[in-house]
Specification:
By secondary structure, the chain is mostly beta strands. It has five helices and 31 strands.
């Protein structure tokens, strides 16, 4: 028996917990002229005497998300204004039905559904803007709004009701101008609801729908491929900018990069800016006047810097080295530097980033020639000395051993540059004489060979 008692107590306690877990907060909230009732985040009722209501975004720790069915019906004869919270997602059936004293209402940006008859009979409302967040405007949502003259629909996909059997979001209304984007559902609604213009419905496309192609070419004298960001900022609204991106690729002549762009813009005056790494920002004014515009080719000016270069070698001889930079067939810069200490330093002012054919020569060294993409202010190059038989940028006994193996015919599959580096005495073959010269240099018996 005690087991049954304990079990019944447990069940009762569990049931109480379950009831607590599903309970919602309900209470009244003071507004002008009386109170509104909010239950579980839904406005469920309003006193008959309410004249103005600012609905809170939160009540009892819950977000206010809906106006309930017929919530303001009792206040229909006295309600003059209402402010809806940004948290609101749904206005339910007949929520503001016959509130004829309402002259305007601002729908919040998170609103998703305007239900059947939500504003039915609100004859004082003359214009309304339906935000892009609204997915559905249901049957008779605005029927009886005889004063309604302008409806602006911000979203292209908002669904409206119209059927031949009589269902209609704006049932019974006439003389309304609907404003929305070209090809949107509101345009389709107007075509379906008033095909013969008997209701005097008019559709106007928003001004931003009429756009014109603005195109052109961006050119860089640099040869390294890059990209450029283009922004068009209208003088009438500096907070709004249209942007596009263009990739600059090497031209057929290989001496510059270029890329084309195209963007659709409404008529107006724009500040055009072009930004790209390693280039100065370019700005100009573009006027779009009801026709396509081809902007004159824009050539970007590269940012220049002082290139600081270093050439290293394991040898302590060679005198001077010559460093040249070429683009295509044109030599861009040429410098000489003392390399007898094993390090040569040079600098070139007003250097432009890009691809260059870098060529370095020095006495008793293998010539260096390579294409470099130079975008930073420093360049370090290792020059291979004659005697560096294994190509590790050092002169040591490992090179002596390699030269002996070459002279003995033990190494046959050797790169041409390795062969040239091992021919120290310059007799066009490998022999013990090459190894002897390197040993003498390493021992300090000679200072060069």
């Amino acid at each position: 028996m005690s087991i049954l008692k304990n079990l019944s107590r447990f069940v009762a306690a569990a049931a109480a917990v379950m009831l607590m877990s599903v309970s919602v907060y309900a209470g009244t909230y003071a507004v002008t002229g009386g109170n509104i009732t909010i239950e579980g985040g839904i406005v469920t009722a309003a006193d008959k005497t309410v004249t103005s209501a600012v609905i809170p975004s939160e009540f009892g720790g819950e977000k206010v998300t809906e106006i309930g069915q017929s919530a303001f019906y009792k206040a229909r004869n006295n309600l003059k204004s209402v402010s809806l919270p940004d948290t609101l997602t749904k206005i339910n059936f007949s929520a503001f039905k016959n509130c004829s004293g309402l002259t305007e209402i601002s729908l919040p940006p998170a609103l998703e559904v305007i239900s059947d008859s939500a504003f039915k009979g609100c004859s004082g409302i003359t214009q309304i803007t339906i935000p892009a967040s609204v997915a559905n405007v249901e049957n008779s949502a605005f029927s009886g709004c005889s004063g309604l003259k302008t409806v602006t629909v911000e979203g292209a996909d908002t669904q409206f009701v119209f059927t031949a059997s009589g269902s209609d979001s704006f049932y019974g209304l006439k003389d309304i101008t609907f404003i929305g984007s070209k090809g949107s559902n509101i345009e389709k609604y107007v075509d379906a609801a008033d095909p013969n213009h008997e209701r005097n419905f008019t559709f106007e496309a928003t001004s931003a729908d009429t756009v014109y192609a603005v195109s052109g070419k961006i050119i860089s004298p640099l040869t390294n491929e890059t990209s450029a960001d283009i922004a068009f900022t209208p003088s009438a609204d500096a907070a709004k900018a249209y942007s596009t991106k263009v990739t600059l690729t090497r031209a057929a002549t290989l001496d510059h990069t270029e890329g084309t762009y195209s963007v659709n813009l409404p008529a107006g005056i724009y500040s055009m800016s072009v930004t790209s790494d390693t280039h100065k920002t370019y700005t100009t004014t573009v006027t779009v006047s009801n026709a396509a515009v081809t902007v004159t080719d824009i050539t970007l000016e590269p940012t220049v810097f002082t290139l600081s270069g270093t050439v290293t070698t394991p040898a302590k001889f060679g005198g001077t080295c010559t460093i040249s930079f070429s683009s295509g067939d044109k030599e861009i810069a040429k410098e000489t530097a003392d390399i007898s200490t094993g390090t040569a330093s040079y600098s070139i002012d007003n250097f432009k980033p890009g691809y260059y054919r870098v060529k370095i020569t020095a006495n008793r060294h293998i010539g260096y020639e390579k294409t470099e993409n130079i975008s930073s202010q420093t360049l370090t190059t290792a020059l291979r000395a004659i005697g560096d038989a294994n190509g590790d940028n050092k002169l040591n006994n490992d090179d002596v051993k390699r030269i002996i193996r070459l002279a003995s015919g033990l190494n046959t599959a050797v790169a041409a540059e390795d062969i040239a580096a091992a021919d120290i005495n310059g007799n066009s073959r490998h022999d013990i004489g090459d190894a002897i010269l390197l040993v003498k240099y390493l021992n300090g018996d000679i200072t060069e060979y």
